[in-house]
Amino acid sequence: MIQTKILGTGRAVPGQVLTNFDLEKIVETSDAWITERTGIKERRILEKDRATSDLAAEAGLAACEAAGISPKEIDCILVGTVTPDVPMPATAVYVQRRMGVPPCAAFDLSAACAGFLYGLTIGDAFVKNRQFKRVLVIGVEILSRILDWKDRNTCVLFGDGAGAVVLGPSEQAPGERLRGILSTHIYADGTGAEALSIPAGGSRNPTSATTLADNLHCVKMNGKTVFTNAVRNISASCMVALETNNMTAPEVDMVVAHQANLRILEGVSQRCGLPLEKFYLNIHKYGNTSSASIPIALDEAVREGKIKPGMLLLFCALGAGFSWGSALVRW
Ligand code: UT7
After folding, report:
1. What value does the mean pLDDT take over residues 143-152?
2. Measured from the CB, is residue 230 less than 6 Å from ligand 1?
3. Considering the domain 180-330, what is its CATH architecture?
4. Which of 91, 209, 242, 282 would bridge 84 by S-S if both were Cys, CB 3.0 to 4.6 A apart?
C-alpha cells in the first residue's frame, strides 16, 4: 500500500520587519489593540525588487535540501497563492524556472488561506495514484502588495512569506501503523465570497480608472463574519479529520493551524477539546501569511526539533471563499 509522506519542509520569509509600533505611524491603531485582538506583534514585508516566485523558490529549495533530493527530481509543482507574480502565466512556472527544475507539471491554485491544504490534498492524490513521485507543494503570499495601507481593519493583520513541503510515496507493510498523510478534508462555501475579497481586477470588474480611484484592487474584509465562520468551520473540519481516522483529540500531539488570529485558535481549541498548548504558534512574528502560514509553522516546528517521528499532527485553516479544511498527518 502506498502512503504519501512529507519528505522535507522549507520556508522563506523576508528580512524586513514591520512592527505594530511602525504601524502606529501609518494608521490610527496601537500595539495594544493589535496584540490584544489578534496576537500579532510584527510581520515581514518583501523587498520592493522581489516577487512571489522569488520567495517561493527559496522555500522550495530549502524543502528539497531537507528532503535530500535535487530539484531536478521534482515532477510536479503546486503553488497555493492569491498574490501571483502576474495574472498569467502561473507563478508555479516561474518557481520551476528559478529552482532549475526540468519541465514538469506546474500550476497555481487559488484557495486563499486554505491554499496549502488544497495543494496538500491534490499532491497526496497525485502521489497515491502514482502519477507523480516528487510533488512540491508551496504556500506563498506577498499580501503587502494587495493591502490598503490606509485601512486599519486589514493592513495590520497580514504579512509576507512562503513555506513548502516535498511529498513522496512510502510503501507500508500490511498491519504496520499508517504514516504520512492519513486524510485531508477540503470545503468551500461561496455564499461567504463577499466577506473577504478583492473586488476588482478580474472579469466581473476589470481594471479601470474608476476601480483604481475607488481602491478596489485591495483586500476588503468583514472581519466579524470571517471570524465567526473560521471558528465554526475550522473546528468542524478538525472533528471530521479525527472521526474519519477513529481518533480523539487527546491523541493529537500538535496542531499546526493557519495563523490568522490567536482568538480564532482559542475558539477552535475550546470547541475541539484541543489544549492551546498543543497549537504551534508563530502569529506574533509573521501575522497572517495566508496560504504560507501552515507550511511556515510546520517548517519552524520541524527545525526547532519539536516534531518527532510518530507524532500525530493536525493541520487546519479557513480563508476567503470561504475555503477551509483539515489534514491529519502521522510524522
Ligand atoms: O485568514 C483569514 C482571514 N482573516 C481572518 O481570519 C480575520 C478574522 N477576523 C478577525 O480576526 C477580527 O474580526 C479582527 C481582528 C479583524 C477585528 O477584531 P474584532 O474584535 O472583530 O474588532 P471589530 O472589527 O469589532 O472592531 C472593534 C473596534 C471598532 O471600533 P468601534 O466601531 O467599536 O469604535 C474598529 O473600528 O476596533 C476598531 N478597530 C481598530 N482599532 C485600532 C478595527 N481595526 C483597528 C485597528 N486598530 N487596527
Report:
1. 96
2. yes
3. 3-Layer(aba) Sandwich (3.40)
4. 91
Q: Please indicate whether residue 261, judged by its CB atom, sits closer than 6 Å to ligand 1.
A: yes
Q: What is the mean pLDDT of residues 103-109?
A: 98
**246-115-83 Cα angle (round to 5):** 170
Residue with grid cell 500500500, as numbered in its chain: 1
Provide the 8-state DSSP code for 243.
H
What share of the chain in percent tops pLDDT 90?
97
Quick one: pLDDT band at residue 104, thresholds 50, 70, 90? Answer: very high
Q: Which amino acid is at 43?
A: R
Atom of ligand 1 nearest to the CA of 224: 13
Tell me the pLDDT tens digit for each residue of 22-81. 999 999 999 999 999 999 999 999 999 999 999 999 999 999 999 999 999 999 999 999
Which tens digit of pLDDT belongs to each residue from 9-23? 999 999 999 999 999
- The alpha carbon dihedral of 48, 150, 85, 83 has a sign of positive
Distance from the alpha carbon of residue 201 to the mean position of ligand 1, in angstroms? 26
Which candidate, 9, 70, 327, 40, places its Cα nearest to that of 183?
327
Say yes or no: CB of residue 233 within 6 Å of ligand 1.
no
Give distance in angstroms: CA of 197 to centre of ligand 1: 16
Does 180-330 match 2-171 at the fold level?
yes
List the chain domain ranges.
2-171, 180-330
Please check whether residue 182 is in contact with residue 328, taking contact to mean a CB–CB distance below 8 angstroms. yes
d(CA 279, CA 273): 12
Phi, psi torsion values for 185, nearest 5 degrees: -135, 125
The answer to whether domain 2-171 has CATH 3.40.250.10 is no
**Ligand 1 centroid to residue 27 C-alpha, Å:** 14
Per DSSP, helices labelled H in 275-316 are 283-286, 293-303
What global pTM score does this model have?
0.97
Q: 208-219: buried (b, 16+ CB within 10 Å) or exposed (e) per residue? A: eeeeeeeebbbb
